[in-house]
Design goal:
Chain lengths: ~375, ~325, ~70
């Protein structure tokens, strides 16, 4: 076991040396998956990368980009006596305009944390007198699990199970970023588990239309280092393509069965991304065939529209325009224990990860830094 | 009283209260001092310096692999006394029972408390039992308070933590928190996962006898190793740098953490300790610890630094550094 | 948005599989991966098997990294 650990350090060292050799001027690489944001921080990767390589977090945290309107609606549903809300733990602390699900739960709303959307089917079966609404959040990795759950509910003829969809799609968001003249990115670290579902094809536009190097990345520290190495090689060689570092999981064609289920239950819809705004066809909503499982259709609800005014700069952080430390609220008015924007709420939000795992390079002055 | 459940009358100080004491509690952990059933206990201590602590126990589930709330209640206070550099001597036990609580469960709990107290070499000398209406409690809540004799020649204090000292951890982390998660979110845990709940005073006595210069001892309970080390870094005005490759976590615990998105450094332990000591004593201390049942997996996991004061950092498997910050609340399962 | 772990399928009944990782077991749905069989290593996310892990590729990645390291 110790041998494996020594190997890891040696391989890491080699990859880092190569990256340093290949990259001769400042480059900015964007990771677009919240799980990568956390993985990068937990491995301490920014600490060891040569200074000319900057890693920036894009809009890959589906919790962060969930709009206030959705949270307000979820909270309104949760407060209804006839509703049990089932949600992934990630959503509990996300702020809406005035409150959060965590607060609603503390005040008596029946909110259950689930690890799998299938757990909410059980809740529905055990509580026939209640309406069970599952908060369907997540990208292309998680959306198929919600779709499969809806199909399961249909098969079981459950009449009291619904989903409230806030699913979003990654490629449209990347396109929106790339047409923004302010955004300067030299390469993309692509989300390995999203690609496990979609395959490589939906990301081909990056090299083909925008001359962007892109590599599909796994989540272990060496996966990420190897990804940066492959991107460095593309940049050095002046070529662009979608390469796959995560071959053990990501097949070229992804998971067709999962995609088929998405198409069966959902259809593309315009979606509002917190901090970015409306991106056409970047979200998923339940289609007409399954609308009896769509909470908004089956249990329409009125939600008061409130507009929050804050100095929150989540939008610019999500687009990789500024580092969290450049927002004047960061670390002062906006902290994990009282977040202003969702970037600070989600464990993997750029600001929370930055705060929690350290803003990049440390002052451990003596010894190996 | 074998069958049956707790009634309000068990808490009103009359015949049923007496019966509860005589038929359930005294037979479990009774002794000459407790049996006097006076308002308080009159006991002697070894000298002037006494350690004194209290803790309350509300864990759910009440019974779990490796123990129950009773074992926790005794070990928790025994361990706090040990971490204060004392030999634990006497405990008090206060219980709040909910109407309807099965007496058979109470019996199991108090019998375990007796066993654990014997193992730890402490005496339960006084206590109190109250009953609340159904719905106003949660089965059983226990409070234990304890006193111990401070060991001569020791001086446990965060103020004595200095840069250059070693941080020693006594064994595998996350076992307790994982054991009480069994069954949640449909995870089926192997029987190898048991709460590590244990009285550490025997181990601590040997450690302090061999190396009275130990600066700080603390047990990483709620909030895990991360919370405890952050507290010490802040209280001592130093930084702490851990080595990820040295942190001992069982594969099963790691698996649960990976599935639910938890970090083992933040999981509660009930039978582990952290020791801060000058590097020149580490070898000797580890030798002593390895000979003891509860210290056999002890190792150095990091060092105290003068850098990054008040912060805990960790050198990762690839040589980077990450911050191990103070947790805010408990961990909740995530999928992102 | 991608927290997923590899686990081995040790039992299968229709669309439900039992997976094991270091002794920890859980039922997972095979609705998204109907072709998975007992003995396969699969990626688990939110209670579903998402993709079969290609053991050969995993080995290849290891070997490649070791090879590169040899060149260093």
């Amino acid at each position: 076991m110790l041998e494996a650990k020594q190997d890891t350090k040696k391989i890491a060292s080699f990859l880092l040396q190569e990256i340093d050799r290949l990259i001769t001027k400042p480059v900015r690489l964007m990771e677009v998956c919240g799980t990568h944001t956390v993985a990068i921080f937990r491995a301490g990767i920014r600490q060891v990368l040569p200074t000319q390589v900057e890693l920036v977090s894009g809009p890959g945290c589906p919790v962060c980009v969930t709009a206030d309107e959705y949270m307000d609606m979820a909270i309104a549903y949760a407060k209804r006596q006839d509703v049990i809300l089932a949600t992934f733990g990630d959503m509990l602390k996300v702020p809406g305009s005035t409150s959060s699900l965590g607060e609603a739960k503390a005040n008596g709303a029946d909110i259950r944390i689930v690890y799998s959307p299938l757990e909410s089917l059980e809740i529905a079966a055990n509580h026939p007198d209640k309406n069970v609404i599952f908060l369907a959040v997540g990208f292309e990795t998680t959306a198929p699990t919600a779709a499969a759950t809806v199909l399961s509910a249909a098969e079981k003829k459950l009449k009291n199970f619904f989903v409230l969809s806030a699913h979003k799609l990654v490629p449209p968001a990347l396109k929106t970023l790339l047409v923004d003249p302010e955004v300067k990115v030299d390469g993309f670290i692509l989300p390995g588990h999203v690609c496990a579902i979609t395959g490589e094809e939906p990301f081909q536009f990056l090299p083909e239309q925008y001359h962007m190097p892109a590599v599909v990345a796994g989540f272990e520290p060496l996966d990420i280092l190897q990804t940066v190495y492959l991107l460095a090689k593309q940049i050095h060689d002046g070529r662009t393509s979608v390469e796959n570092e995560y071959k053990r999981i990501v097949k070229k064609n992804g998971n067709p069965v999962a995609r088929q289920m998405l198409a069966e239950v959902y259809e593309p819809a315009d979606a509002i991304w917190r901090g970015i705004g409306l991106i056409p066809n970047s979200g998923l909503r339940v289609n007409e065939r399954y609308q009896s499982f769509d909470a908004q259709v089956a249990l329409p609800i009125e939600v008061e529209k409130t507009v929050k005014q804050t100095a929150c700069r989540c939008g610019q952080v999500l687009r990789g325009l500024i580092k969290p430390t450049e927002c004047r609220l960061f670390g002062k008015a906006c902290l994990p224990e009282h977040p202003v924007g969702a970037c600070m709420v989600s464990v993997e939000g750029s600001c929370a990860a930055w705060y929690k795992y350290g803003s990049g390079r440390y002052q451990y002055g003596t010894g190996n830094n | 009283m074998e069958q049956g459940t707790i009634k309000m009358e068990h808490g009103s100080g009359g015949k049923l209260s007496k019966a509860l004491m005589e038929e359930v509690i005294l037979p479990a952990y009774g002794n000459p001092v407790l049996n006097e059933m006076h308002d308080g206990a009159s006991v002697s201590t070894a000298g002037n310096k006494v350690a004194f602590t209290t803790d309350s126990y509300v864990v759910k589930p009440l019974f779990f692999a490796g123990g129950n709330i009773g074992k926790l209640a005794v070990c928790g206070t025994v361990n706090d006394l040990a971490m204060t550099g004392s030999v634990p001597r006497y405990l008090s036990v206060g219980m709040i029972l909910e109407e309807g609580f099965p007496i058979a469960d109470l019996r199991r709990i108090v019998e375990t408390m007796c066993q654990t107290a014997k193992e730890a070499g402490v005496m339960i000398v006084t206590g109190d039992t109250k009953v609340v209406n159904k719905g106003a409690g949660d089965g059983i809540y226990i409070n234990t308070a304890g006193i111990g004799d401070i060991i001569e020649g020791t001086n446990i204090s965060p103020k004595r933590v200095q840069p250059g000292q070693d941080v020693i951890l006594s064994g595998y982390i996350g076992d307790h928190a994982t054991a009480i998660m069994a069954g949640r979110h449909e995870l089926v845990l192997p029987t190898s996962i048991q709460s590590d709940c244990a009285p550490l005073n025997g181990l601590v006595k040997e450690m302090l006898t061999a190396v009275p210069q130990i600066a700080v001892l603390r047990d990483p309970t709620r909030g895990g190793v991360a919370a405890t080390l952050n507290e010490i870094a802040e209280q001592s005005g130093t930084g702490i740098l851990l080595e990820e490759d040295t942190i001992p976590v069982r594969p099963e615990v790691d698996a649960v953490c990976e599935i639910l998105g938890f970090d083992p450094l933040y999981l509660a332990n009930e039978g582990k300790l952290l020791a801060f000591v000058d590097a020149k004593y580490s070898g000797k201390l580890l030798e002593i610890m390895h000979k003891h049942e509860f210290g056999k997996d002890a190792r150095i996991i990091g060092k105290v630094t003068a850098d990054a004061v008040g912060q805990v950092g960790m050198r990762t498997s690839i040589g980077g550094i990450r911050i191990v910050d103070m947790p805010i609340g408990g961990q909740i399962p995530r999928i992102c | 948005m991608c927290l997923a772990v590899p686990a081995k399928i040790i039992d299968k009944k229709d669309q439900l599989a039992v997976v094991e990782l270091s002794g920890v077991r859980r039922d997972v749905s095979l609705l998204l991966l109907p072709e998975a069989e007992v003995g396969d290593f699969v990626l688990i996310h939110a209670g579903f098997a998402m993709q079969i892990i290609d053991q050969e590729e995993a080995e290849k990645t290891n070997e490649l990294l070791k090879e590169m390291n040899g060149l260093a």
